[in-house]
Amino acid sequence: KQEVTQIPAALSVPEGENLVLNCSFTDSAIYNLQWFRQDPGKGLTSLLLIQSSQREQTSGRLNASLDKSSGRSTLYIAASQPGDSATYLCALLNAGNNRKLIWGLGTSLAVNP
Amino acid sequence: DAMVIQNPRYQVTQFGKPVTLSCSQTLNHNVMYWYQQKSSQAPKLLFHYYDKDFNNEADTPDNFQSRRPNTSFCFLDIRSPGLGDAAMYLCATSRVLRDDEKLFFGSGTQLSVL
To answer: For the CA atoms of chain A, what is the radius of gyration?
Structure first.
């Protein structure tokens, strides 16, 4: 059974730091992995989607990598800003007929001015 | 220019009183999803529509129903809300069911049950 883990559960950094959020999974047979951002009490915003055949995706200050063999994905945030404060969730689509996303519990990020 | 719109933003209902949450989209996407998210938990898929085809998750309680009268609108009906149904309900869409398709979420409806 696929399990998705995000460590740490919470992270606090000073403004300007580069940081890495981690997502690990137990079954490498996936179609894709997505990173989402969720602000308190709000919906989710899709940040980056990496397909199974890809190694990384970039958007602005964000870079997401995927290593299926080790069951890991990382979200790199460069030059963090207070506006980056939010919860970041990873979710992956398992191979097979069931198209249900498997979610991590998220990392709550606080970027302090 | 919100693309997935959920109304209302906050909904308060009484124990056992039916409630309907609504979702509309301007993206003309084929797939619409309903998720339930409780505090500090990951979103849980309740069901999804691919066009008019309804796909219920095996562990979704019978208390939860959905309707999709047209491409743009999808409703979540909770027939007899219990205290355990208090949660954030998220609607999402995707163009098709394909591996490179992102999900687009609405802002959610926070449901309270008194």
So the answer is: 14
